[in-house]
Sequence to fold (166 residues):
Amino acid sequence: MAGLWVLLGTLAAAVVAGIVLSARNGRIRKARTTPIPTAGAAESVGAEQQAATLPEPVSAVLAPGSAVTLVQISTTFCAPCRHARAVLSSLAERTDGLEHVDIDVTDQPSVAHRLGVLRTPTTLAFTSGGGELFRVSGVPKAADLLGALEPHLLPRIERGSHSEGA
Fold:
């Protein structure tokens, strides 16, 4: 009889864990409020100075001409990473001022550690100056992501629409 209770308890815990993980997957979270640690970095780092404190593989891929760069942190054998890559690259192709890059941290786990990434895929949205806007753990939902990006892309879109009509 005790074995049955252990089995039921384990199943209940698994169901709760599955529901929690499913609810958190693809949810947009605020940017880190603490600066990314580096040797000798100041206690508070502004958004303009943040690019200098980012790991080199990340700061090297930030697109200076884009309003926002989506940096996807992936690993080699991550199946959801392929789905996230498809969602993000499609969104970037259709959206003016948005770039997408994928960084594989399989052989460079220190990059994920310095960014505070605990699972893959994780997508970080950065300004061209290196300021983190927000992050998404898991496969992002395109509509939610576009809604979160809209305030950062809207001025660029409005300028583009005025120049097209002229």
Summary: Residues 28-165 form a domain with the Glutaredoxin fold (CATH 3.40.30.10). The radius of gyration is 19 Å. The longest strand covers residues 68-74. DSSP finds six helices and five strands in the chain.
